[in-house]
Amino acid sequence: MVSSYKHIYIGIGTAALIVGGAVLIRYLAESKTKKQKSSIDFSVFDSKDIVGSGRCIDRSLLKRLQLLEKRTGYAVLKNINSAVRSQFWNKKVGGVSNSAHLITKCKAVDIHAPTRAIRNLLVVQAYNLGFTRIGVGKTFVHLDVDTSKPQYVAWGYPSGTPPEINPFS
Fold it and tell me: Which residues form a coiled coil (predicted)?
């Protein structure tokens, strides 16, 4: 009698180990898949002349960009024109000397936005997400989180022109 109970307990224990192992393997496989799906390609933020420089991108900016992408349905991270810039590259593109794009800050992006409808959508949703510095060009939207600069401002390009949309006015 004791022997038959022993076999039952061994059988139940073996079954529990098999089921538990299968559940653990599935969990680990799903975790790996989720991590791969949510991984960020930081090279989209690289200065054009320094590979790997985009890893410094401000994490609060990155989180807001991800939310902007979700809210708008626009592939924001696949449409980054300019983000982190070296001093050399910043001068080459005509950036201001204290640009939020500079490697020392890593707090700005320019998002390619080829139509007025896309620019307006990005600007309005960026405003709704708490962006307080928004530049609007003919083919892009600049967003930054540089708190050392004036806040609740929008501007157009070239510098000094009014933006086609200003959520702060």
Answer: none
